[in-house]
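Reopening: NADPH-dependent FMN reductase-like domain-containing protein still failing for me.
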Amino acid sequence: TSLRALVLSGSSRSGSVNVRLAALVTAMVREAGAVAEPVTLRDFPMPPYDGDAEAGEGLPEGALALCRRIEAAQALIIASPEYNASVPGVLKNAVDWVSRYRLQPFKDKQTLLVSASPSMVGGNRGLWALRVPLEHLGARVYPDMFSLAGAHHAFAEDGALTDQGLAERLTATIGSFLDLVEADTRYLCLQRR
Ligand code: FNR
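Support: Ran it again with your exact input. Result attached.
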């Protein structure tokens, strides 16, 4: 396939467990034969949303660049930490800026949500909170999500998950998500003929 997946991490810090999870997901997507591009929000610098700035200068360059990358991908995969049981503000800010772009690029975008956290819940509440704005914007958020608990001790040296069962579940989730994206993309191509 020539499916293109954008793998966006909601944390950019060095040593981020979500950047590590995004790297593993990227490797799995490539293993499945698709193109995967890992990025973080640091690749798309943007100020806090400000309606006056938008009215004056329009969208900041970083937000425009992120819009174009989402547009160019058939699949969006977001790996995000949970902050205070919700979406990190920086990620919500990026969603808000992107939502102002026309045509709004989250619309109909096949999207998979994953999270990692040192906690026992794996940041899953953050993903439920992230679902709300994404589904509001018309993204097709995949029903299944993957949350990695105890993430500080979950990775081997080579970036794989040490728990074989978890690794298999993540591989299966990505596989069935990509199958859906491929079927959806083929359907859209047929419709455009
Ligand atoms: C956290 N963390 C956290 N973890 C969690 O499981 N539930 C939570 O509600 C929160 N809340 C929270 C708020 C803030 C402001 C910070 C900075 C952190 C801990 C968080 O999961 C941990 O720092 C992860 O390592 C962050 O992800 P990255 O940066 O490693 O990808």
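The mean pLDDT is 97. If you still see a failure, please send the error message rather than a screenshot.
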